[in-house]
Amino acid sequence: MQVLLDNFGSILDGFLMTLLLLVCGGLGAIVIGLITATMRISPVASLRAFATGYTELIRNIPLVMVFIFMVFVLPLIAPNKPPYVVLAMIALAVYTSPFVAEALRSGINGVPVGQAEAARSVGLTFGQTLTIIVLPQALRMVVPPLINVFIALTKNTSVAGGFFIVELFATARALTNSHGNAVISILIGIAICYLVITVPLGLIAGRIEKKVRVLR
Amino acid sequence: MTAQASVLYDAPGPKARQRSILISIIGIVAIALLLGWVILRLAQPQIAVNGNETPGMFDPSRWDIWTYTGVWATIGNGVIATLQAAVIAIVGALIVGMLFAFGRLADTAWIRVPVTVILEFFRGMPVLLMMLFILLVASTSSFWAVVLALTIYNGAIIGEALRAGIVSLNKGQREAGLSIGLSVTRTRLLIEFPQAFTQMLPIIIAQSVVLLKDTSLGYIVAYAELASQVKNIGAFFGNRYMFSGWVVAVVIYLAINLTVSWIGRRTARVVAAKKA
């Protein structure tokens, strides 16, 4: 316990770095995922095929390999590489984007065809159908799985700790190295830091799921 | 799925089809140009900040180690280590998941509440931290750290899936079991669990892909699986082989994971067909 209090500063730094990775990686993933999802539901076959290929490819590559590419392989390709933090954010964003895209797509495809048909049959235009009928229903269904994706992302930020980034996991490793006698309390303390992020997110997801569920 | 694949647009008419073909052609050309540019960029000699020139990524000097059988043996060992950890962890995760599912469904609060708390704890923390935890607290080899952490973490997730499967069963299944004189435990084991398991099989297989990918975290806790072996090759033969090593490893990972994903999709179809 004393170790945790003594090193409160470095744990807080690690926590903030984890949060930074989560927020930036998450935003990047939303942008890429939105583009991929749009391509995947577009009427144009080639765009659909490209998005499907991208999704399948990235989803089946381990996060560690994405990190190895960003940290070790990319510098061989691009001589002036950005700092490691930015590389880690890109790696997390790219790795998470297919999961975001799948969540978005399943939400939009989950709206029954009859809803759009009914909207069109009462004379709404394509834009109106999309913004008034389909998207509001889709977004409600999308939020809980999307939050689950971000919970997974929170846990995945720990991989960055293995690649020169000092976030919570790296802090834990450094602390356990220097305080070998207090390993259990350090690890429980760090685990609680992660739970501080993931458990509330999970609760919010459950709440939203109950509150905005479309009754059918 | 033929004409009305999406809610967002009508089945395309002749005009829309023409437009779609046009956009397709433009899209394919754009993607081909992008890929071509990336390949060209990779193939060019690299000039570092200090003016040193290193050969491009497709230069033979970056690929020549792949003619040595020793290098392939190293990679092979990595693949075997990856699969070993994955298979043991999957079997373990199934057993742990079953225990978690039954624990959370137990009638006595003394079992249900602690199991729920433990499960939420394991589900909310990173696998990597758990590996470090096991490595330091139980002071095991890195192999067991990887396997045990993956077992517990994925056990928690599979446990939730199994529980959802049992809860979603028709109530009559349980009542029928009890009414023919089976005990509560036997009803759960003989009637409810097998049905929940088949129903959740696609999810369990999908989770196996996640588990397989997560074995690569062994890279960080120094377990000699596929990703680590690539690093070792880079360290031993020189950094210029990092790229080719990475390509080989990614291709192997894709081959394994896509196969498992494909099995998962097939199983999902079979399960759905059986249910219908």
From TrEMBL, chain A:
Pull one GO CC term from this UniProt entry: ATP-binding cassette (ABC) transporter complex
Q: Where in the cell is it found?
A: Cell membrane
Q: In the UniProt record, does the keyword Zinc occur?
A: no
Instruction: Enumerate the UniProt keywords alphabetically.
Output: Amino-acid transport, Cell membrane, Membrane, Transmembrane, Transmembrane helix, Transport
Q: How does it sit in the membrane?
A: Multi-pass membrane protein
Q: So where does this one cross the membrane?
A: 15-37, 57-78, 84-101, 146-170, 182-206
KW Cytoplasm (keyword) present: no
Q: Which residues form the ABC transmembrane type-1 domain?
A: 15-205
Name of this chain's protein: Amino acid ABC transporter permease
From TrEMBL, chain B:
What does the UniProt entry say about where the protein is found? Cell membrane
What is the superkingdom listed in this entry's lineage? Bacteria
Q: Its Gene Ontology biological processes? A: amino acid transport
Mind telling me which Pfam families this protein's record contains?
BPD_transp_1 (PF00528)
Keyword annotations for this protein, in alphabetical order, are: Cell membrane, Membrane, Transmembrane, Transmembrane helix, Transport
Alphabetized CDD domains for the sequence: TM_PBP2
Q: Which InterPro entries match?
A: AA_ABC_transptr_permease_3TM (IPR010065), ArtM/GltK/GlnP/TcyL/YhdX-like (IPR043429), MetI-like (IPR000515), MetI-like_sf (IPR035906)
Membrane protein topology class: Multi-pass membrane protein
Give an example GO cellular component term for this record: ATP-binding cassette (ABC) transporter complex
Q: Which residues form the ABC transmembrane type-1 domain?
A: 79-264
User: Gene3D superfamilies this protein is in?
Assistant: MetI-like
Residue ranges annotated as transmembrane are 21-40, 85-106, 243-264
**Where is the major localization of this protein?**
membrane
Gene Ontology molecular function terms on file: transmembrane transporter activity
Q: Which family does it belong to?
A: Belongs to the binding-protein-dependent transport system permease family.
Q: What is this protein called?
A: ABC transporter permease subunit
List the source organism: Leucobacter denitrificans
